[in-house]
Amino acid sequence: MPLTDQIGERVMVFNRLQVAARLVGDEERRAELGRVLPGNPVSGVSPSVGSFGAS
Question: Quick one: which of 4, 10, 23, 43 could link to 34 by a disulfide (CB 3.0–4.6 Å)?
Answer without folding.
Answer: 43
